[in-house]
Structure formats: C-alpha cells, structure tokens
C-alpha cells in the first residue's frame, strides 16, 4: 500500500517538510505555453483541412479523416526524428492533448521497445499509454450510446 | 474567421489539459482519459457538434474529439441497424485516427532506432 489511510505523526511531519520543498509548478506560464502551442497545432490542422478541401474533392465533413491522418503521420515522423519529445517538454499539454500527442505516445513506445523484438516489444508496448485512452473512450461511448438509444 | 476560432478553442482545450496536469496533479494518462470521456459526454449532450461547427479543427484535433467520434459512430450505426450497431459502429468514424496511428507508429519503429 502506497498510501495508508491514517498517516502516523512522523509521516505527517515528513509530508509537511516534503511539501515545503516541492518545486512549485509555474501554472500560469505552463498554461500560456499550452494555449499557444495547442492553438497553433489546431490552426495547422485547420490549414491542412482547408488544403484538402481546396485541392482535393473533400467536403467540410469528409476532410476530417485525412487531416487527422496527416497530423498523425507528422507526429510519428517528428517522434522518430527525436524532435517531438523535446518540443513536448516545452509545450506540456499543448502537444499532449491534440491527436498528435496520442500518435506520439504510440510511436515513442513502439520505437523505445524495438530492442525487445517486433512482436513482444513494438506491438505489445504500442498501446501502453494509448490503450487507456481507447479503453475509456470506447467504454464511455458505449454507455452513452446505450442511454441515448434507449431513452430518445 | 475559422482559423482564429480554431486557435482559441484548441488552445483552451489544451489549457484545460494543462490545468488537470498541474493543478489536478493527474498523470498524462489520466488527463487524456478524462478528456476523452468528457468529449464523449459532451457529444451525448449534443454540445460537441456545435463546437466543431464553430471552431473546425480547434474542436476536431484535440483528443476530446476522439470521444465525440466514438459516440457518433455508435449512434449512427445504432440508428441504421438497431442495438447491435452500438458495438459494430463504435470504431467506424475513428478508424482513420486509430489505423493511421498504428500504421505510422509501426513504420516509425521499423525506420528509427531508439535514442539515448
């Protein structure tokens, strides 16, 4: 058990000291970075989407798929080149929350575990981080869809 | 001006994620899961589509739209083929995202070697 329910007095004293020395996270600056970088990623997505509508026969609704695929391709490429992770350390949630962060999580896990082989390393570890997103997304979507179909 | 809307809405969703990380002290895995579930709930309430109409890629690029698309696919298929459609339709809209993420990640693992 990592957290016992009732900390002993000495544990409380330790927690007090520990929280005093904990480095305060610069929340304001982090949020500003996340806002600007995240906003830029979404603007890039809008540019790509408009490009698909303008140069190919996509409509507003169908341009979403190729746009997401393009962003994911770029994220995997930059992850492989080692650029994305450096950028991500600066941008925080600005690169983690867009779909590019999802791709980065998968690609970096796949590359990192390459030495363990393609079956047990790459394939088995690819969904290590992304799996939780898919599991919770699918399960909540299932519940919501059932509620909506039964009630409405 | 769709680009400005995309920038602002997309940026704000990322700020919510950053607040969950910094103030809520959640891990990235918890943060992304929470955002996906909230996207699904927003679509269940019928609020996500108007956001996409307003902000374009600002609403479709963040991970919240993944939850939205899952619900969308499930409901579309449920309308067409009854309750079983919820199971068969869940991945219909998100296939592009998940498939390309798998394919490109695998290609990246083939081409690139781990650093450090």
From TrEMBL, chain A:
<feature type="transmembrane region" description="Helical">
    <location>
        <begin position="131"/>
        <end position="151"/>
    </location>
</feature>
<feature type="transmembrane region" description="Helical">
    <location>
        <begin position="67"/>
        <end position="84"/>
    </location>
</feature>
<feature type="transmembrane region" description="Helical">
    <location>
        <begin position="34"/>
        <end position="55"/>
    </location>
</feature>
<keyword id="KW-0472">Membrane</keyword>
<dbReference type="InterPro" id="IPR014203">
    <property type="entry name" value="Spore_V_AC"/>
</dbReference>
<protein>
    <submittedName>
        <fullName>Stage V sporulation protein AC</fullName>
    </submittedName>
</protein>
<dbReference type="Pfam" id="PF03862">
    <property type="entry name" value="SpoVAC_SpoVAEB"/>
</dbReference>
<feature type="transmembrane region" description="Helical">
    <location>
        <begin position="91"/>
        <end position="111"/>
    </location>
</feature>
<keyword id="KW-1133">Transmembrane helix</keyword>
<keyword id="KW-0812">Transmembrane</keyword>
<dbReference type="InterPro" id="IPR005562">
    <property type="entry name" value="SpoVA"/>
</dbReference>
Automatic annotation (TrEMBL), chain B:
<feature type="transmembrane region" description="Helical">
    <location>
        <begin position="83"/>
        <end position="112"/>
    </location>
</feature>
<protein>
    <submittedName>
        <fullName>Stage V sporulation protein AE</fullName>
    </submittedName>
</protein>
<dbReference type="Pfam" id="PF03862">
    <property type="entry name" value="SpoVAC_SpoVAEB"/>
</dbReference>
<dbReference type="InterPro" id="IPR005562">
    <property type="entry name" value="SpoVA"/>
</dbReference>
<dbReference type="InterPro" id="IPR014204">
    <property type="entry name" value="Spore_V_AE"/>
</dbReference>
<keyword id="KW-0472">Membrane</keyword>
<feature type="transmembrane region" description="Helical">
    <location>
        <begin position="6"/>
        <end position="24"/>
    </location>
</feature>
<keyword id="KW-1133">Transmembrane helix</keyword>
<keyword id="KW-0812">Transmembrane</keyword>
